[in-house]
Amino acid sequence: MSTTTTLRWHTVCPLHRLDPDRGVAALVDGVQVALFRTVDGLYAIDNRDPVGGAYVLSRGIVGSRAGVPTVASPLHKQVYDLRTGDCLDLPGISVPRHEVRCRDGMVEVRLRQEG
Amino acid sequence: MTGGRVVVIGNGMVGQRFVDALRDRDPQARWRVTVLAEETRPAYDRVRLSAYFDGADADELNLYTAHDGVELRLGEPATGVDRARRVVTTGAGEHPYDVLVLATGSSPFVPPVDGAGLPGVFVYRTLDDLASISEYAQGRRAGAVIGGGLLGLEAANALRLLGLGTSVVEFAPRLMPAQVDTAGGAMLRRYVAELGVACHLGVATTALRAGPDGSVAALELADGTVLDTDLVVVAAGIRPRDELARAAGLELGPRGGVLVDTACRTTDERIYAVGECAAVDGTCYGLVAPGYAMAEVVADRLVGGAATFPGADTATKLKLLGVDVASFGDAHGATPGCLDVTWTDPAARVYAKLVLSDDARTLLGGVLVGDAAAYPTLRASVGGPLPAAPLALLAGDDAVGASVGALPATAQVCSCNAVTRADIDTAIAGGCADVPALKACTRAGTSCGSCVPMLKQLLDAAGVTQSPALCEHFDVNRQELFDIVRVRDIRTFSRLIAEHGRGRGCDICKPVVASILASLGNGHILDGEQASLQDTNDHFLANLQRDGSYSVVPRIPGGEITPEKLIIIGEVARDFNLYTKITGGQRIDLFGARVEQLPQIWRRLVDAGFESGHAYGKALRTVKSCVGSTWCRYGVQDSVGLAIALELRYRGLRAPHKIKSAVSGCARECAEARSKDFGVIATETGWNLYLGGNGGFRPRHADLFATDLSTEALITLIDRFLMYYVRTADRLQRTAAWIEAMDGGLDHLRSVIVDDSLGLCAELDAAMARHVTGYSDEWRDVLDDPERLRRFTSFVNAPDVPDPSITFVTERGQPVPVGGRSPSPDGRQPVTLGLPEVRR
């Protein structure tokens, strides 16, 4: 059994600071978040690569696999589903995802903490 | 008896093969082996002897492998065999044996004519012979070869390469009489004549005459011709070295050679004979493949096996003086009632003959001159039904390709490794879906490689589609993508994928397209949409390390650096607390930089005159050099100067993979140029160019491509080599694999970039000229542009906060990431990387 605690929205940056199909790292309440902007919308996941342990997912290459929006870890290229955080190459591995939206030209993030 | 003492007399190719084969089967070394060698160097590849004149040295031709329990005694020829006491005597003593293997090989046959012993007359058998010929040829003008067979033509080519006007004298009415027929010989003669080699056929040499200095000066032929010559090579055939066996009272074959049965055993059951000295059931074989087969038979017998000599495949395919010649099966049509189908095309200069059984259904043999593409299929079909109509078989590649599917299961596809069609089909059925998989699984195609085209065709025949697709977003490979981008002048990934692909792209195709766009000169790699295609190294113009920090490598062309610049690097490393290490490429790597520090580090370096070293890119890395003639007592050219010029010329060139290079100032090769994609080694008169080397997982020496080049000619060849590589190689394919994958390999590459066979050279030259003039430093270009600089922040919403996850401890006086992959000796708790974090 797990419960999900949703915290408050944080304003992060103007939307134009996010390049299409490329990530940036943001520090939200002490948590490193990787933010992505694609034609499908905005995505937010933890910046920490769960396999390699380094905080680098925001620097991966954004793309698609069978129509699913993805990012590939720059360390060892495992591919993650940006919508769910699930690793598409290693079953059972996933990266926490967070909520993200755009309000009045500003990107906002709300952390999801599973615990 | 499956153990004891083996004495092997002879350390030629076959003698060595026997030792290798025995050790393979007898890893516990129950057989202790003593090898007695006449020559002072261990076994080398005599088949490739002529490569010596292309610059290959003894090391490159070396075949010797040391084994436990094997003693090699060089320069200690056997002088006698005492069968009663079972000892071999040498000048140094006696060697007792339980089993004796004679691998004494053969000696050149020198016809008994006057003057055969004059100074200036040589045979063509050992590396020492070749060294003597090479030395004697210095400053002389004309050479003659007695013998127009395979070895004679090799020798003629060697004399040509040594700069001598060359004649060949052959007693038979055609060249290569043992392998080709009259019409094939005529075609061969046309090729040879075009190279400036004069042929005197159907005529015997009657005498060699000395000049005033007592050395050879002329050949007299039976038809009265007198050929003036300064040097003579006798290549008139070989005779088995059977004198030890004769003296020991062993029975010999009718035309010489030590008589053995199909177990390769002589008339003394403790003595075997293998290779050119052996007469199996009376027949001697002058080719290495049957010798190898005999070596395997004896090794098998010694461990209790019952192998027998399977009979010889005397099929040969070779390139002589640049001409493809192949002969297989009953090439001369000796089978009663057989039929010949011949094909002569004087325009294309191709001759082919197939020998068929009297009912025209079974292929018996054949001869190919000028184009031997059909050889693998035809050789594999000998003894079986024709895989296609005879003329279709001879007409060209397509027909042959289509016919491969009709080969019988027993047809031998790879004769080097005895792999049949059935073996290949089984491997394909077992899941092998491409040529590399078939090679790994069956060993087919791993020796001479001539059957590789057939492996592809058999995959096709089995209905295996060898997908060229780069990834799920593009159906074509990198080369085709490159052509599409170039020809259609596409400047953006989004247009390319919209018009020629599908989906959004991925970490495979995006960097490939980024590299293609960069190779074609589309401005700074971080401009506009291009930035989103780069992997993280190119995106930050630095190398990502496992803790998320980056390393910085400034370019130090040729490894030459002033003390002032060295001090600057030291100051930068100290001020930014960077771990500092000298690289293998003669430069300095600075580790542990955070993304927001990168521009500050570059600022300091760029202001001091440094630029990006592209250590992060699939691009030219470094051109290493030795110190060269400026300082070195042995150097013959300025290797540092050339290395700097090459590094500055090709810096920043984006390619399918990294490119490394080195320049050595003399043949001692201190710069290790032959382990590089392109390596240059100085000669007295210029530069030798080597292509296709690499270190890494599968190290490979580069192959000699051209010799004694001027600096200008060298640069032209490297320009074309690199541009052709950039345009046609596959993703992440180093130059070595790229050349290996080409149909025709190095010869094909030579035809494209030297002979301009594809008419591409002008285009390649122009493309390189554009690269050279278009170069600018990527670091400086970022520093000059606030828009590019904006990417180099730790957090988009907290640019002043450094990444808290990057922390260091001190090890040997330098900062290193916390938590190594291996437990540290000081007992620090290792941090587990590579395992998912458990979340509750």
UniProtKB/TrEMBL annotation, chain A:
InterPro entries: NirD, Rieske-like_NirD, Rieske_2Fe-2S, Rieske_2Fe-2S_sf. The keyword Ubl conjugation does not apply. It comes from the Bacteria. Residues 10-109 form the Rieske domain. Gene3D superfamilies: Rieske [2Fe-2S] iron-sulphur domain. GO terms for biological process: nitrate assimilation. Keywords: 2Fe-2S, Iron, Iron-sulfur, Metal-binding, Nitrate assimilation, Oxidoreductase. One of its GO terms (molecular function) is metal ion binding. This is Nitrite reductase (NADH) small subunit. It comes from Micromonospora phaseoli. The lineage of its organism: Bacteria, Bacillati, Actinomycetota, Actinomycetes, Micromonosporales.
From TrEMBL, chain B:
Residues 803-840 are annotated as: Disordered. Its cofactor is siroheme; [4Fe-4S] cluster; FAD; [2Fe-2S] cluster. InterPro entries: BFD-like_2Fe2S-bd_dom, BFD-like_2Fe2S-bd_dom_sf, FAD/NAD-bd_sf, FAD/NAD-binding_dom, FAD/NAD-linked_Rdtase_dimer_sf, NasD-like, NiRdtase/SiRdtase_haem-b_fer, Nit/Sulf_reduc_fer-like_dom_sf. Keywords: 2Fe-2S, 4Fe-4S, FAD, Flavoprotein, Heme, Iron, Iron-sulfur, Metal-binding, Nitrate assimilation, Oxidoreductase, Thioether bond. Residues 617-753 form the Nitrite/sulphite reductase 4Fe-4S domain. Pathway: Nitrogen metabolism; nitrate reduction (assimilation). Residues 5-278 form the FAD/NAD(P)-binding domain. Siroheme binds at residue 670. Residues 315-380 form the NADH-rubredoxin oxidoreductase C-terminal domain. Binds 1 siroheme per subunit. Binds 1 [4Fe-4S] cluster per subunit. [4Fe-4S] cluster binds at residues 626, 632, 666, 670. GO terms for molecular function: 2 iron, 2 sulfur cluster binding; 4 iron, 4 sulfur cluster binding; flavin adenine dinucleotide binding; heme binding; metal ion binding; NADP binding; nitrite reductase activity; sulfite reductase (ferredoxin) activity. It is an enzyme of class 1 (oxidoreductase). Residues 413-460 form the BFD-like [2Fe-2S]-binding domain. Residues 545-606 form the Nitrite/Sulfite reductase ferredoxin-like domain. It catalyses: hydrogen sulfide + 6 oxidized [2Fe-2S]-[ferredoxin] + 3 H2O = sulfite + 6 reduced [2Fe-2S]-[ferredoxin] + 7 H(+). Its EC number is 1.8.7.1. One of its GO terms (biological process) is nitrate assimilation. Homodimer which associates with NirD. Belongs to the nitrite and sulfite reductase 4Fe-4S domain family. This is assimilatory sulfite reductase (ferredoxin). It comes from Micromonospora phaseoli.
